[in-house]
Structure formats: structure tokens, C-alpha cells
Amino acid sequence: xxxxxGQITFVNRAFAEFHGLPEDRVLDIDLFSTVHPDDRHYxxxxxKSSVAERRVxxxxxxxxxxxxxxxxxxxxxxxxxxxxHTFRGYIASVTDITERKEAETALRELNAQLLRAxxxxxxxxxxxxHDVTAQDFFALTxxxxxxxxxxxxxxxxxxQILIEAxxxxxxxxxQLRTQAYLLHPxxxxxxxxxxxxxxxxxxxxxxxxxxxxxxxxxxxGRLPEDLEFTFFRIVQESLTNVxxxxxxxxxxxxxxxxxxxxxxxxxxxxxxxxxxxGEHSSSVGWKPGLGLTGMRERVRHIGGWLEIxxxxxxxxxxxxxxxxxx
Length: 326
Prior knowledge:
Elements lengths: L12 H7 L3 H4 L10 H17 L3 E8 L5 E12 L5 E10 L1 H53 L5 H28 L2 H5 L2 H16 L2 E6 L8 H21 L4 E9 L2 E8 L21 H12 L3 E7 L2 E9 L4
Parallel strand pairs: 4-5
Antiparallel strand pairs: 1-2, 2-3, 5-6, 6-8, 7-8
Helix pairs in contact: 4-5, 4-9, 7-8, 8-9
């Protein structure tokens, strides 16, 4: 229990044992003195603002145990009031969630490994399609052309079959190359994110009819490989969602530097007739699903975070990644 001044007035035995002190000694410690330095400011600010508003709140932070080990704690605080409605402080329940946090970290790492394996397989398949299968299709169209030239006296019906077969081969070759590039565009490795996005958005507009405006700050240049690849996949996934679920004739992709971070925004002006329920669901813009989970994991793996904002004017997906420059 904590009084209106933020002073501990009562703890149970488990709380005292966590700190390695007798129950009466724990009453004298500062609430945040043993909080991990990286979490101290965050926890303190939440505590101060919540106490000022006299509201129920929860927070998670790392706290040093008596043996010197930091443990993750989940703290839930409920305000107490006297019969005359005078604020008396808080009653808090504290749960050690270290094992859960460790399991979440292991799960995130596993997800990251799966995404890396998936991306490596995409790259391998794209290379095989481009270097092997596409070359075979090209050779097929050449041979069909040679066959048509070798037998100019074939009946008109047979010549027409050869012409149509060659046309089908050329169509299949174009589609195969497009799919290979979508799996992993060579431009991403050779010229970087901006060139790859320009190529992708041009093709996306042709396939979908959705006009996409691209804006990239001039000073961004080349980025680390994992950053460029993640941003490209986020744009792909976001625009696929726009095409499938949002009624939007236009979209915007913007990559900027803001306050020491890279910020990617993908916006549309669409409206959905209905969406599945769940987190971030709304009648506008983003439709939740497995794509969102993959996007969040990709962004988390490169040290950033993803936000979704939906309104009557459309939806915006924002990815922010802090830059750690020398």
C-alpha cells in the first residue's frame, strides 16, 4: 500500500523477500531506487502522471532483487479513497513476469529466424526463376520462332498455332520475370531501396490501377541491407492490403528522416465496407491479419515500431526506426 505522498505504508512478506529486507525496512526504500536505469524515467513519469489524475494504471519494468538480479515486474495500481472521497493513495499488486518476458523474447527471436529463412528462400527461388526457368522459356520462344521460319510452307492453321504458342511463351516469360522480381527485386541489391520502390510502384500501378505517389528525402541514400529489405516488404504488404481491401484510387509512400529516425509512411484514402474484429480494426483502411503480424515482427527485429492510424479519410501505416549513426 502507498499513501498519497507516494510513500510505502505496507508490504506483504513476498514483496519484502524480493528486496531481501525485513518488512518494516522495506517501508523506508524509495519506490524507484532499484528500478533498472533504462526503465526508471519511464516508470517514474507514468507513476507521477497517473497519481496526479487519481486513476487506475499498470506498468512493466525491471527491478533489482536482493541478489542483484534484475527481474521483470508487472505492477497494477488502484487508487484508494476515504468515505468522504479523500484520496488516500494506492494499493498495488506486483507480479514477477520474468519467465513470460524471456519466453516472449525467445518467441520473437524464433519469429525473426523464420522471417530470415523465408526471405532467404524467396531470394533463392527468385534467382532460380530468373536464371534458369526464365531462360528456358526464352529459349522456347526462340525455338518456336525458328521452327516457324524453317517451315514457311506449313498450312496456315499450323503457322497460326506456332504464332499463338510463341505468344503464350512470351507472356509466360514476362509473368515469370515479374513474379521473380516481386519475390526479390535485383534492384534492391544493386541500386538500393529508392530504385526498387520506383520499379515496384510503377508495376503496381499498371497491375492495380491505383496511382501511388513516392516521396523519398534526397539525403537518405543507401541504407543497411536489412533496413532496405524490411522497408520494401512493408510497402509491398501495405499496398497489397490497399489493393485487396480498401476502395482507394490513390496511395502515398513517403520515406523521411525525422528527429534522428527513419520514418516510412504508407497512406491510402480508402474505406472498407467491413473488417474482421480485433486490434486496430475499423471501418476504414487496414484489415488486420497475418500480414500485420509479420510486419510488426520485421519492424521489431530492426529496432523500430509500427503504428496504424485509421480515420474517415483513409489509413496510414507508419514505421519508425531510430538511426544509430556514429
